[in-house]
Amino acid sequence: MNKTVNQKAWFLVLPVLALVSFSAVIPLMTVVNYSVQDSFGNNQFFWAGLEWFKEMLESERMWNALWRQLAFSAIILAIQIPLGIIVALNMPKSGFWASFCLVLMSLPLLIPWNVVGTIWQIFGRVDIGLLGYTLDAIGIEYNYTQNFYAAWITVIVMDVWHWTSLVALLAYAGLQSIPDAYYQAAKIDQASRWAVFRYIELPKMAGVLMIAILLRFMDSFMIYTEPFVVTGGGPGNSTTFLSIDLVKMALGQFDLGPAAAFSIMYFLVILLISWVFYTVMTNMDKRDGV
Length: 290
Hints:
By secondary structure, the chain is mainly alpha-helical. Helices cover 73% and strands 2% of the residues. Helix 2 crosses helix 12 and helix 7 (148-176) crosses helix 9 (193-221).
């Protein structure tokens, strides 16, 4: 028996494909075009091949920015994932206070990135900011515009304040999906609180935690607005992450060829790491389904 296949549904997908092509593919192809050519202005281009990619791979500036970016993302994940889990474990399970906590945890996520940077820029100033003034009053030297450690601490604390809620909400959703029968069985077996977390809660949260790690890594690896508003990449180049360095190269120095090659390599690194996370998540789903 021959089954009739209706291909008309593809027409519904065409607007989406056209939108994606316009908003993603075409700009990407433009960047690829700049990455293999050189320009001396007046819209005149000359073939450069892989020269800019070679230059970026040999650039100490790019590698330094990459290590700073990786260090920042590692610190962010090391703080936010455990902290988010702890917050989720201590949130009420139901009732008014559960709803109140969910709304409260969602508030930092609603604040735009540039507003977050402005808030912490003012908050940390010694002359008018509550944090900077208080630390200076008790004798702690704090100046994020001149001190390397103060700048890093400010940027890290700012990101933790802004995005830990996302991890907490995802972990909380994972905890809510655990049937009460698991807790009742653990109570009958007189399992300790650590045992309940280790063998019941953590395995059930593994899927959402992988999503949280993926989202937080991608966002922290592409961070730009907050540190740029607060420190401008300084003091020196101490908080000049990949995105800030790329903007300085493309718009500040107007080196379009190297900047295009830089952006493609940046994109490929994010794509590769995201693919690794996706593979791990898929394998976990297959294992849980067996």
